[in-house]
């Protein structure tokens, strides 16, 4: 990989925590005028291009028309001219407080149902780079489905979180997992604190700690529960949580359950964060003005809906200046970024001990299930005793733990092969290639150049359904996301690049995207070709 | 320029119209309702223009004293 001397200015030199530039990939000279308060050359590698104004107007027009028809259909259902397929109150309850009139139910009945066939498609094989789908048709406009019995084979999978290709059923690689099943069975039948603390958990936690460069780690059976059950153990009333605008639901749920005060800063915006920190330190708690017991900054490594990478050096500098704690959720970035797959701390060349709580999941890059929290030994020992997940949730299943152990050893190279590091490099190459080609074709892509999550903006509600169906006809499975998960005008298709994708598969996808982009009219980008360098 | 190429181009424009106005998501009878409403409103506008344009143009020309 090409490495250049860091030619960014002195201002950004001050912001870098431990000043190590060993693993950092530097861009060329920095630009002026970034409005996020960031002087780092990394900001050049992100792009969130805005579409022309007519696109927003047409999107609102489309939503307006469908909403009007939604009201019309609701009227027909109320009058009785049309059968209502969804839940309704009983006749005796019609005078009670209405249950199904809020916006969410309206949206589900009248917009989501019309294009529902693009989600929850039944899969009948391994979710590898190619998979098989069961063919499913609807006779009454998506109210009910029936399976025709046919299987669609070898559909290219651009939606599964399979970044390093560990969703595989190669017998040789899975032998340890089979042995673990034969030895331990599948169920643990207890919580970690009671009888569920197996030696395989111990081994896994030591391995996770050494992988991340932390002192100690603890693993949990479910990634979502790791966030939602452990944040309440770390903060409580009287503490302040500063959470990014686009944080995942598990972080928001954990923050709300804890009872701490939550303040939201603009996505990846360091000026907004600093302003909140200053106000918090100066003002203290809301009415009593006592100092906050703890200030916890909660961010993610890669935000999966935007594809953007957190500005970690700036956040670490801010946290040191204002004496706050940092909770980093590396669900999508562990294993997927960094020169050897160690996550965003390695990507920016920072010391992992700068981050107080390192959290991540094993679902995405390790082909298993579960989550971990790593950090100082006192922190992890405290969590072993006080976490809700340790006390009440079943411990991780042994075959799953063995899969994580073998995947981690593969990435670290401890099994004596170079398969792991090859996969990490292949993922980086695939990501760069895919993103560069998409930008050349003229699509609007969000996010950083290193993120394997690629959101492609579709904007209009009609195109969302048409895109997903047309891609399935071409035997490519994509995930499209619409309103509740994204802002209403920014519906998108989200591609997850995997190291198991070959160049041919990516080329086939790009070719189909090119055709569909012209046929559906999706090439909104007004930028000239590529601004970013390509190493390979 | 054969007739089939022109037909293909027209049907692509109709497809774009369906996608942009989100009629693509609606059932066929809803599309018919919307299209008839649109065509009737547009037809009424054209008819009104046809009936009243000459009078309006004469009045404007009178006002600017181009015509006496």
The gist of it:
Chain A: Belongs to the class-II pyridoxal-phosphate-dependent aminotransferase family. Chain A is α/β, with parallel strands linked by helices and 536 residues long.
Textual characterization of the structure:
In chain A, α13 (398-412) packs across α14 and α14 runs parallel beside α16 (503-520). A 7-stranded mixed beta sheet of chain A has the order 4-12-11-10-7-5-6, sandwiched between helices. A 3-stranded mixed beta sheet of chain A has the order 2-3-15, covered by helices on one side. A 3-stranded antiparallel beta sheet of chain A has the order 14-17-16. In chain A, β5, α7 (249-258) and β6 (261-265) form a beta-alpha-beta unit. Mean pLDDT of chain A is 88; it is low at 1-39. In chain A, 38% of the residues lie in helices and 16% in strands. Chain A is α/β, with parallel strands linked by helices. By secondary structure, chain B is mainly α. Chain B has one domain (1-64). In chain B, 79% of the residues lie in helices and 0% in strands. The longest helix of chain B is centred in the C-terminal third of the chain and has 36 residues, at 28-63. The radius of gyration of chain B is 20 Å and the shape is elongated. Classes of the chains: A alpha/beta (536), B mainly alpha (68). At the A-B interface, α2 and α15 of A face α1 of B.
């Amino acid at each position: 990989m090409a490495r250049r001397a860091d030619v960014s200015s002195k201002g950004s030199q001050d912001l870098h925590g431990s000043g190590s530039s060993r693993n950092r990939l530097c861009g060329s000279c920095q630009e002026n005028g970034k409005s996020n308060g960031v002087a780092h050359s990394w900001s050049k590698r992100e792009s969130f291009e805005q579409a022309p104004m007519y696109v927003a107007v047409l999107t609102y027009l489309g939503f307006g028309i469908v909403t009007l028809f939604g009201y019309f259909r609701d009227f027909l259902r109320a009058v009785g001219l049309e059968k209502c397929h969804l839940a309704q109150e009983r006749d005796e309850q019609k005078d009670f407080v209405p249950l199904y009139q809020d916006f969410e139910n309206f949206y589900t009945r009248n917009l989501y149902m019309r294009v529902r066939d693009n989600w929850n498609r039944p899969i009948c094989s391994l979710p590898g780079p190619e998979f098989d789908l069961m063919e499913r048709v609807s006779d009454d406009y998506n109210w009910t489905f029936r399976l025709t019995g046919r299987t669609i084979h070898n559909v290219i999978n651009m939606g599964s979180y399979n970044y390093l290709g560990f969703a595989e059923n190669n017998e040789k690689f899975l032998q340890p997992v089979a042995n673990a099943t034969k030895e331990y069975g599948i169920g643990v039948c207890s919580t970690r604190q009671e009888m569920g603390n197996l030696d395989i958990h111990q081994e896994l936690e030591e391995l996770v700690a050494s992988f991340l460069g932390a002192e100690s780690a603890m693993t949990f059976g479910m990634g979502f529960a790791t966030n939602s059950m452990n944040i309440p153990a770390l903060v409580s009333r009287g503490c302040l949580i500063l959470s990014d605008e686009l944080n995942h639901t598990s972080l928001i749920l954990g923050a709300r359950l804890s009872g701490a005060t939550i303040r939201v800063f603009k996505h990846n915006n360091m000026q907004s964060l600093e302003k909140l920190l200053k106000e918090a330190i100066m003002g203290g708690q809301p009415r009593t003005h006592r100092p906050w017991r703890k200030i916890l900054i909660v961010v993610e490594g890669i935000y999966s809906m935007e594809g953007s990478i957190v500005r970690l050096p700036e956040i670490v500098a801010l946290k040191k200046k204002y004496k706050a704690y940092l909770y980093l959720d590396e669900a999508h970035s562990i294993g997927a970024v960094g020169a050897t797959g160690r996550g965003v701390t390695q990507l920016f060349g920072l010391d992992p001990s700068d981050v107080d709580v390192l959290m991540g999941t094993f679902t995405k890059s390790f082909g298993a299930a579960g989550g971990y929290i790593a950090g100082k030994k006192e922190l992890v020992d405290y969590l072993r005793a006080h976490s809700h997940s340790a006390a009440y949730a079943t411990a991780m299943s042994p075959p799953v733990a063995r899969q994580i152990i073998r995947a981690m050893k593969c990435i670290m190279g401890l099994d004596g092969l170079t398969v792991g590091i090859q996969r990490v490099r292949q993922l980086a190459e695939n990501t760069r290639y895919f993103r560069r080609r998409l930008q050349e074709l003229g699509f609007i892509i969000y996010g950083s150049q290193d993120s394997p999550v690629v959101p492609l903006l579709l904007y209009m509600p009609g195109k969302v359904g048409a895109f997903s169906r047309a891609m399935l006809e071409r035997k490519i499975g994509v995930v499209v996301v619409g309103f509740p998960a994204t802002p209403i005008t920014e519906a998108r298709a989200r591609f997850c690049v995997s190291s198991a994708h070959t160049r041919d598969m990516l080329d086939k996808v790009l070719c189909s995207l090119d055709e569909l982009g012209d046929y559906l009219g999706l090439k909104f980008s007004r930028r000239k070709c590529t601004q970013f360098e390509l190493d390979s | 320029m054969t007739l089939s190429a022109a037909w293909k181009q027209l049907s692509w424009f109709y497809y774009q119209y369906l996608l942009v106005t989100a009629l693509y998501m609606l059932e066929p009878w809803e599309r018919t309702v919307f299209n008839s409403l649109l065509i009737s409103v547009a037809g009424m506008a054209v008819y009104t223009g046809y009936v009243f344009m000459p009078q309006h143009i004469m009045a404007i020309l009178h006002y600017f004293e181009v015509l006496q």
